[in-house]
Design goal:
Structural class of chain B: mainly alpha
Number of strands of chain B: 1
Structural class of chain A: alpha/beta
Number of domains of chain B: 1
Oligomer: heterodimer
Shape of chain A: extended
CATH superfamily of the largest domain in chain A: P-loop containing nucleotide triphosphate hydrolases
Strand order of the largest sheet of chain A: 5-6-7-3-8-9
Strand content of chain B: under 5%
Largest interface: A-B, 43 and 33 residues
Radius of gyration of chain B: 21 Å
Largest sheet of chain B: none
């Protein structure tokens, strides 16, 4: 890898950051006094071996759970902290919005605070004079601009901070989550500014818990986990994989199996002997699929006394946070499950689930569908990964009808209930 | 390297760090100039916020040193009956001269001490800025020193304005040296300020230690006593301490141009250009600045991790 290629706006090589933790301030003095011969610190690695490159005009997303090192990475790139290992290059002036309203002082007016904040973020006085009317209009603060900041509501102070931040014009913009706050109308305005920035060919590093935003804004994405790169690639793939992974994390906390307390199956009662998922119409077991694929869920049952016990088969698709996504049973469809043993297939021609991990349960019910004799869980979770930008739980069948030429009458206003 | 390109490497070799450090020390004035907009904003904010919301408002810069002065005056001139002897001033003028001598000493020392004591916590107070934005933290101590000197100038200005009414005239062309002395004072406080500001980030005991050190220093400096009043034996014993104390030279310089225009020639305080004192003080300022800022610069890398 050639370092210093002008094609890239950001190049990072082996970036790492570790902190020295001292139990007491005296230990630091001892260590310094012994010129490092005595070690009193523990090392905390916040980031290790992070390498990536971002082309000019592209946007890099950073995702990962809390404590994965996202903020550390952003702090290193924005220059507020130095890396412990590795190196990086940024092609041009960088502005980082790690915090809004840096240097805001409650006793001063909004106007004075804009000037101070703008100066700290690298704007000259002349630029500020030019931008001030624009910022004022953007902030929608009106005459409040000349009142002290302490009289502002928190939303107003936030708007003031935003209005400075979004008018910076660096080569590389680093954004940490901040755009997630604010009222809808204002958040939209800010998002518009960021997209606009992107359209003008500037480079963005964007860290957010909103995978939707990352997917929409970014071309490439890094998934950080425990300070290391877990995955790096195009943002749709990475965010989808990350979404599937974090749902499985949730699952570990709430084991869906427990939800159905399992009584030991008794040989003399109807019970299940297995459940597997196959690629539709084949003998090939499959647990990693994409939306639109077809699957067969096969459930094997035994019924020692078909004359005495009427049985029905149910299938439950449950997301790992214990949400039941869909469930059906032969009882709903007025079918009959006959015989002393056999196999029931739940054939799904087109899976409409979106990214996530799903537990598939087979449930053996009694005649009226009230009592559960037994249940079985598929040997492995069904992993769905979408390759599209669709968001949510399921891919609903739909069409878009856009009819600019045909005047569809606007709906009549609903009449308010009058007493 | 193209304009504006930023390259940062972890743990550059020691020799490179040293070179960067030396470059930073040499270009400190340039750093201040480059960030002048920030200094200006902080400066006006600090000055206005200091007394905002108080009833006396801008009278406070005068009231504080005046109150201090009155305390010292009560203790030294009234209770201890201190006079300024040994410089050939007639008996009746000694008391009055001591009053002026004391006033200048108190105003300058409190300006100097305030800038250092305030700077001890300046990095901690601005932790938010340093952690969240790439911020030239080394200009903060300069800003504090500038504010302290401004307030001190107000008090000195009041002195210059009022003293003719009290019957003596400190106005002379030697006053032209005043800006030089003010700059020198900033330089002198800067080195120490940078050092304590940085050390306080790692060892919070710096503030109380500094309080003790500053008190010692204040009494070791002729703020409210005069070496002229000492017996020759005593004086020769402490001569080295006075010689090594940059604040002694600085105060002497201030007093030369502010207190004794018209004092008899041949005395230590005879009016004149204070260049010799300035020279000694600048040498000390330079050494302290190089050491203090050198330490600050090395420590600065770790600020955002420690705050």
């Amino acid at each position: 890898m050639v370092f210093g290629d002008s094609k890239y706006a950001i190049e990072a090589e082996n970036l790492g950051k570790s902190y020295k933790l001292f139990n007491s301030p005296a230990h630091r003095v001892f260590e310094a006094a012994s010129l490092g011969k005595w070690k009193f610190h523990r090392e905390h690695r916040a980031l290790a071996n992070v390498s990536f490159r971002v082309e000019r005009g592209h946007a890099l997303g950073v995702v990962g759970p809390n404590g994965a090192g996202k903020s550390t990475l952003l702090k290193i790139l924005s220059g507020t902290t130095d890396p412990s290992t590795g190196r990086f290059r940024l092609a041009g002036h960088v502005a980082s919005l790690l915090e809004l309203g840096a240097g805001f002082h409650p006793e001063f007016s909004g106007r004075e605070n804009i000037y101070l904040n703008g100066t700290l973020l690298g704007l000259s006085r002349r630029e500020l004079d030019r931008l001030f009317p624009v910022m004022l209009e953007f902030s929608e603060l009106g005459e409040f601009i000349d009142r002290p900041l302490r009289t502002y509501s928190s939303g107003m102070a936030l708007r003031l901070g935003f209005s400075v931040a979004v008018h910076l014009d660096p080569e590389v913009l680093i954004i940490d989550e901040v755009f997630a706050v604010g009222d809808m109308h204002f958040a939209k305005k800010c998002a518009d500014r960021v997209y606009d920035f992107r359209r003008r060919g500037k480079t963005i590093v964007f860290c957010s818990h909103s995978l939707y935003d990352v997917r929409q804004l970014c071309d490439v994405c890094i998934w950080l986990d425990h300070g290391t790169v877990r995955q790096i690639g195009d943002s749709v793939t990475v965010t989808n994989d990350y979404a599937a992974f974090s749902r499985s994390l949730d699952a570990n906390e709430r084991n869906p199996g427990e939800w159905y307390a399992k009584a030991p199956a008794r040989e003399e009662l109807p019970h299940l002997s297995g459940i597997r998922i196959y690629k539709i119409g084949t003998e090939e077991e499959i647990y990693d699929i994409a939306p639109g694929d077809g699957i067969d869920v096969r459930i094997w049952y035994r019924n020692p006394d078909p004359a005495q016990y009427k049985i029905h088969m149910g299938v439950i698709f449950q997301r790992n946070d214990a949400t039941i996504v869909t469930a059906d049973s032969t009882e709903f469809s007025k079918l009959e499950v006959a015989g002393a043993q056999g196999c029931v297939t739940y054939r799904c021609h087109k899976v409409i689930l979106l990214s996530g991990q799903f537990t598939v349960l087979g449930v053996l019910l009694d005649g009226p569908g009230m009592h559960r004799y037994d249940h079985a869980m598929s040997p492995s979770n069904l992993n769905v990964r979408n390759r599209t930008k669709d968001v949510g739980l399921v891919l609903q069948q739909h069409d878009w009808l856009i009819e600019p030429g045909r005047p569809v009458p606007e709906p009549a206003a609903r009449e308010e209930a009058t007493n | 390297m193209k304009t504006g390109e930023i390259i940062k490497e972890a743990r550059p070799p020691a020799i490179q760090q040293l070179r960067e450090c030396a470059a930073a020390v040499c270009t400190y004035p340039l750093t201040v100039v480059r960030n002048w907009e920030i200094v200006r904003n902080f400066y006006s904010r600090e000055l206005r916020s200091r007394f905002r919301g108080t009833i006396l408002g801008f009278l406070w810069p005068f009231a504080q040193p005046l109150a201090l002065f009155l305390v010292y005056y009560f203790v030294f001139a009234i209770i201890l009956d201190a006079k300024l002897g040994g410089i050939g001033v007639p008996e009746e003028g000694q008391k009055q001269l001591f009053l002026v001598y004391l006033f200048v000493g108190v105003v300058v020392w409190s300006g100097f001490a305030e800038s250092i004591l305030r700077n001890a916590s300046i990095i901690l107070e601005n932790a938010n800025l340093i952690k969240k934005i790439a911020f030239p933290s080394e200009i903060l101590p300069f800003n504090t020193a500038l504010v302290a000197v401004t307030i001190q100038c107000m008090a000195l200005g009041a002195y210059l304005a009022v003293s003719p009414l009290l019957g003596f005239n400190p106005w002379s062309y030697y006053l032209c040296a005043l800006p030089v002395l003010l700059l020198l004072q900033i330089a002198l406080s800067l080195g120490l300020s940078l050092a304590v500001a940085a050390s306080n980030v790692f060892v919070r005991d710096t503030t109380p230690i500094l309080g003790i050190v500053m008190t010692f220093w204040q009494f070791a400096t002729p703020v409210f006593w005069s070496p002229e009043n000492l017996t020759p034996e005593k004086r020769s014993k402490i001569e080295w301490a006075l010689e090594a104390n940059p604040m002694n030279h600085l105060l002497l310089a201030y007093r030369k141009i502010l207190v004794f225009p018209g004092a008899p020639a041949g005395s230590q305080f005879a009016p004149g250009w204070p260049w010799e004192e300035c020279g000694k003080a600048s040498l000390a300022a330079l050494i302290m600045f190089v050491l203090g800022y050198g330490f600050f610069f090395i420590a600065k890398r770790r600020f955002s991790d420690e705050l």
